[in-house]
């Protein structure tokens, strides 16, 4: 599947400020706030972190309340070990939000707070939420045949089989389309019958990408504009969708990814603004969506389940997706180890952007376990 293709596309979008896959000799720029005069610093929180409600940074400014490691009783030595590990693994940006406040904000090399980076398939989580918003607005139903929002003949199959594929199948990777040739190509000649819908789970990118057109046609709104109006602007995200080959990739800075994680942590509400009111859809999106891969929701990865399937494989693997992570963790996971972790039980959001840290992947990888083993040591001294 030419997974090195992803390394190429990360550097092919000319507008992006910075993109790197080799971080030899990087110096860590740690931006954990130091304990200064708290009485003169309104961004510093003086309460007990265990009792704090969720904080939401302003939508129209770059202000963001922060914790020190001391306030959280986190281990600074283990934080140094984590940072060294991340640097060795080609990380560009790493954030940890606790109760919505910045607990860790690290950048490496020439990457900065404003530098944009691709989310790769972690961006699927944005699309999943957009489908839910469109359904809430009665623009579509996830039970709709895809054909009702795309022209007949969007596949290379007879109409009866084509019409059996629903938006739910696109969200859950259960379309039954043949994934053995090219998982990215969504030209009709690339979309052939292999299984009936709902019969098998396989990580097939092309049906997912076609959700862009489904959303645009159903809402009569450009996909990029729909994202901006419904998600980006209401929560203060900065970012752009960029077409690269067959893929529509989202690029943003790390804080914007953190904002989206915070929105998900609060189940679709940004402070007192409801981005997604339909909590039934939200719960379905972030829970087991089908029996073939219990570790997958609607384009979200789920931890703590009894087994999982991985991109590029037909095998079922026993055990939890990330054994060292909290069992209620949900994640957006992208090629070359782009990570968005959301942990409701701990009020945590964790962001990692950077180069490939684990021998090429399209989603889950051994790097997940490496991060969480070391992050646990920081948070549990």
TrEMBL record:
<dbReference type="InterPro" id="IPR001466">
    <property type="entry name" value="Beta-lactam-related"/>
</dbReference>
<keyword id="KW-0378">Hydrolase</keyword>
<dbReference type="InterPro" id="IPR012338">
    <property type="entry name" value="Beta-lactam/transpept-like"/>
</dbReference>
<dbReference type="InterPro" id="IPR050789">
    <property type="entry name" value="Diverse_Enzym_Activities"/>
</dbReference>
<feature type="domain" description="Beta-lactamase-related">
    <location>
        <begin position="91"/>
        <end position="307"/>
    </location>
</feature>
<dbReference type="Pfam" id="PF00144">
    <property type="entry name" value="Beta-lactamase"/>
</dbReference>
<dbReference type="GO" id="GO:0016787">
    <property type="term" value="F:hydrolase activity"/>
</dbReference>
<protein>
    <submittedName>
        <fullName>Serine hydrolase domain-containing protein</fullName>
        <ecNumber>3.-.-.-</ecNumber>
    </submittedName>
</protein>
